[in-house]
Amino acid sequence: MTTRVRRGIAGLPGPLPAGERLIWQGMPDWRSLARHAYHVRKVAVYFGILIAWSVTVDLHDGHPPAQILGAVVWLIVPGACACALLTALAWLSGRTTIYTITDRRICLRYGIALSVTLNLPFAAIEAAALKTHADGTGDLAVKIGEGRRIAYLALWPLARPWHIRSPEPMLRALPEPQHVARLLGAALAASAGQTERPRPVEPVARPELSGATARTAAAG
């Protein structure tokens, strides 16, 4: 007698159940995570402003060049360390995060020190919203139905910003956001018994997707 062993898929808590089909799987762009989740650029700009202010004040007060240079170094060192630490965290997050879409659910696996797997059945999803960035990456957030609240801190960095009272999981820093949005829209429509083709996602100011048709659109 031959025994078949069903192998698991990376990013999922176990093998796919019989009849469930894998549609898409991918990882976030760590550079986009560094910019939009860990805000490395904003931190660098902040320290840059501090340095410029320090130099301006010291020059106005007539301090010697050596003292001015020393003050600049004291700001550059912590600024560089902060940016390096945030960049490293973004890289680690990118390496340890896997997004999975099947014909029944979305699965998020993330966590640097402790891996967490979050299953989001299509039945629990009320809406989806896509936000694209100038670098070509994008964030695809999903709104969960009432009674299925997930802690904001437990989701971070895969939580939609500023949605603290009603946290929304997010497929963050997607390299091909519109392609993934179309796949998710088609899967949600098929799951809901819809036969019409979901409209393509376009990067507009503040589009959104919601309603029973569960078609994917873009939203900020």
From TrEMBL:
Protein name: PH (Pleckstrin Homology) domain-containing protein
Region listing for Disordered, in residue ranges: 191-220
Keyword 4Fe-4S appears in the UniProt entry: no
Membrane-spanning intervals of the chain: 43-60, 72-94, 106-125
Domain spans labelled YdbS-like PH: 95-181
Keyword Secreted: no
Domain of life (superkingdom): Bacteria
InterPro entries per record: puhB_PGC, YdbS-like_PH
UniProtKB keywords: Membrane, Transmembrane, Transmembrane helix
